[in-house]
Amino acid sequence: MARGDDIIKILKLAKNMRESTTGYSIDDIQYECGVSRRTAMRTKDLISKVFEVEEVPNYNSKIKRWRLKRGTIDRISAFTKDEIATLEECQEYMNNQNCTNRCDLLPDIIQKMKFTAAGGIQNDVDALLELQGYAVHQAPKIKLDKNILEKISEALLAEKYLTFRYKNKKGEEKYRKVAPYAVIYSEYTYLVAKDEGGSVYKHFLLYKMQNVYVTNDYFEKDETFNLQEHLSKAFGAFQDSKPMKIKLLFSKNVKDIIENYSLHPNQKIIPNDDGTTIVTFEAGGAYEICWFLFRWGKDVQILEPQELKDTYKKLLSEVLEQM
Known about the structure:
Layout: H1 3-19, H2 26-33, H3 37-50, E1 53-55, E2 66-68, H4 72-77, H5 81-96, H6 106-116, H7 121-132, H8 146-158, E3 160-167, E4 173-184, E5 190-195, E6 201-205, E7 209-218, H9 227-231, E8 244-250, H10 255-258, E9 268-271, E10 277-283, H11 286-294, E11 300-304, H12 306-321
Antiparallel strand pairs: 1-2, 3-4, 3-7, 4-5, 5-6, 8-10, 8-11, 9-10
Helix pairs in contact: 2-3, 5-6, 5-7, 11-12
């Protein structure tokens, strides 16, 4: 028997001892856990060390029986105001980040937590949130189809293929059958997946996915896949097959900001004597990098590579043509 299974049995036994009115004898523990009498005695002693156990009066028999005192587990499982406030913060953040596939469950979960907590917890939670000055910035985002997210979740958990119709950059619609691996939530939300029989991880925009279905076909998941490692090769959620070595020069006007700003997980920041700052990193996604750089205006200059410079000039020219 695995150690994890033993722990589950002990916790289940403790729960049953809490709910029992007549209590549990050594024979009862032995039968329920499927262990020897000696192990049953050790299990009872172990539970007694962790929880408050009381002997149940038994006037018709000499057999001793025990149960957990009322409220023992309740006090252990009760939620604190900090825990509830943290979950409410997560709820607001998830809503803002478009993680809406499970947000509809959170209000009920939070309410149940408040019921199990000590009296007056709601006022404490509200005060704590106000004290922390918590607020969610309503940033631009693409609306997501809840049904699509639920189907993706189902496929991820069951390790089944997904099928859908998808439009590429050229507007061409194609049928896709993919093995899903993860969902990236950002301004745009992406599905990380591999085509059936393929070896390359691709990113699919959720709002472009149509007629999404979970198949009955299972795929063999690559257990070596690591989402953080995968994203370290990308800028934001956009990834090219060949990452570029990026070198940027930021002006002294944004020195304090850029030295405390995380552009990319593998970035290196080099301050110059004249107050300017060089930032280097390796990533794919030329268009997304350029979109990010637009916000810095004249305070950023692309030093390398030439490919990124050309893309930036091309995008600027296209914008100017519309002026």
